[in-house]
Design goal:
Blueprint: E1 14-25, E2 28-39, E3 43-47, H1 54-61, E4 69-74, E5 77-78, H2 83-92, E6 93-96, H3 108-119, H4 124-137, H5 153-165, E7 171-175, H6 183-198, E8 202-206, H7 210-216, E9 219-224, E10 227-232, H8 234-239, H9 244-256
Parallel strand pairs: 3-8, 3-9, 6-7, 7-8
Antiparallel strand pairs: 1-2, 1-4, 4-5, 9-10
Helix pairs in contact: 3-4, 3-5, 4-5, 5-6
Length: 257
């Protein structure tokens, strides 16, 4: 049974396009001929065993990782080595990591206002207003004046999501955002992501949370050994995986959940 969230919001224009992406770490071929297009408003879940290239792939999209071969275009901007192209793309792409990467010496509110003021040049009043809007959005507005150390892991991760949203990005990348959290905190972060998906945000999520994938994804993409092995809408992906690697991965992961 598909939830209403899975109805594609897609406008049909590829918002992100990866063409023939290859990446090596020394001799290790980390990404092999990756071709992927993501439409505006589409929600993609990337899954696969450890070391399959999922995190490397999304880190290439905002050039946190360079790649040796191929081309990536985000919102019509080709991601080249040029600093201005990288800066333009990073302004459009929000990223949430496993670790929360909050500045410990700044309050929650200051963590959220810093980049909009420095990068987008907005005034402190506007930055504050935007920050409070998104902190309320992730149900953490009342913690605005606390320091990260005084928050739980789940709260810190929600602050990290709000901080990314304060840049008003056009796409959000999530790199295993719940894997560092205690089990009882996973739900609050996933609920936040589910509600963002309901707003029509373009999202690419690397996650092992298959319930989230079933509920939110327009497409689930399975990676192994640096390549895309299989991709399908969630109903088909879970009910009828085609590839033996996908079947064994799902067998393992669903047995643990």
């Amino acid at each position: 049974m598909s939830s209403p969230l899975n109805s594609a919001h897609s406008t049909g224009t590829p918002f992100i396009e990866l063409r023939g992406i290859n990446k090596w770490y020394g001799q290790f071929h980390a990404l092999k001929d990756i071709n992927l297009t993501v439409d505006e408003g589409e929600r993609i879940v990337l899954c696969g065993p450890s070391g399959s290239g999922k995190s490397t792939l999304i880190r290439c999209i905002n050039r946190l990782e360079p790649f040796e071969k191929g081309a990536i275009t985000v919102d019509g901007i080709e991601l080249t080595d040029r600093g201005d192209a990288i800066a333009s793309v990073r302004r459009e792409v929000g990223m949430v990591f496993q670790g929360f990467n909050l500045f410990p010496h700044l309050t929650v509110l200051q963590n959220c206002t810093l980049a909009p003021m420095k990068v987008r040049g907005v005034s402190s009043d506007v930055a504050r207003e935007t920050a409070m809007k998104y902190l309320e959005r992730v149900h953490i507005g009342e913690q605005a004046l606390k320091y990260p150390a005084h928050l739980s892991g789940g709260q810190q991760q929600r602050v990290a999501i709000a901080r990314a949203l304060c840049m008003e990005p056009k796409v959000m990348l999530f790199d295993e955002p719940t894997s560092a959290l205690d089990p009882e905190m996973v739900k609050e972060v996933l609920d936040t992501m589910i509600s963002l998906a309901g707003d029509g945000m373009t999202m690419i999520c690397v996650t092992h949370e298959m319930g989230f994938a079933r509920r939110v994804a327009d497409r689930v993409i399975f990676m192994a050994d640096g390549g895309i092995v299989e991709e399908a809408p969630p109903e088909e992906f879970f009910a009828n995986p085609k590839h033996s690697r996908t079947k064994s991965f799902l067998g393992e992961i669903l047995a643990h959940h």
